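Give me the fold.
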Amino acid sequence: MSEIDKLVDQLKNRKIDRRQFVIKGAALGVSFTALGSILAACGGGTATPAATETSTAAATATTAAATETATATAAATETATAAATETATATAASAGGAQETVKIVVTSPQTGGQAQWGTELIRGTELALGDYDASTLKFKYEIVPMDDQADPKVGMTVANKVAADPDVMAVVGPWNSGVAIPASPVYNQARVPLFAVASDPKLTQQGFDNIFRVGSTNDFQAIGAEAFAFNTLKKTKVAMIYEKTIPGQGLADYFKTPALEDGMQVVAYEGETVGDKDFTALLTAIKPKNPDLIWMPATYPEGSQIIKQMKDLGYPQDIAIIGADGMYTDEVIKLAGDAAEGVYATALGGDVNKMDSASTFVSEFKATTCMP
């Protein structure tokens, strides 16, 4: 008996549920279309929570400066099209010819300072799933936005709601590593495929086989930033101002290790809190240490204010500022104004606006979201 035959036998005897069948079948290399046909023939069992292992679908690492929002959204929606949607297709049982409703949850910050990213993730998912002709599918899909507010506690609430709903067959998100990592055991136990934008490597180092990445990881991003600062910009004294979150401190540490190996001086290693607006005391303390580089793994609401206040405090113009992917957005220019001139930022992939393979998606995304 082949491995897929064994899975079919387990499904028929209700030893595994539909979610488990899809994940295990995909791991054997069986297409989602074929899995859907098998489930339709078998009638599929009722999806119930269970427990698992891990596999990491990591994208090719690159440290080229790029638009994280577009890159992550394009990747997330492509993955959702190829996997989340097909998973939903596969798990739609043909009960008397009636279409089952399958929910695709998008969890991201949809209000607050990072709402731009979160809402774009929703629009991208809608665009990708909309490419399918619903009349030809065995299910009726429903996209369900859930606002995690970039808050780990709220993210746990979202995860528990998803786990309790057997109609949810896939999750696009979370966007933030600080939300995704603590919530990931809940999704894993519920056997829900998770297509995460979150980029801290610890997310996929836990041993969970239901988590799939849509971009590279922060260690590569920080290593690339350090190499650029040391080899290209020739900087030797770095002050680090990091966001006090899992990815923020992780990016600071991933930069710090190669910096010390290259003989750079780390003259400051300071954290800032999401929501803060006045960084005068922090910047005043750092200025006398005469750094020639600021490595700032922060998100744009706080990072923009830090850049602006550095200028107000009279920091030398030849100090290089490198932000991480949370700073790669036009919002920095809007919020920091002239002070943003010359600021660098890293990202997790190539610029989709310059990729022929992404041209159709980018055009459709901009048209449907009224982006320039």
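Residues 60 and 216 are 6 Å apart (CA to CA).
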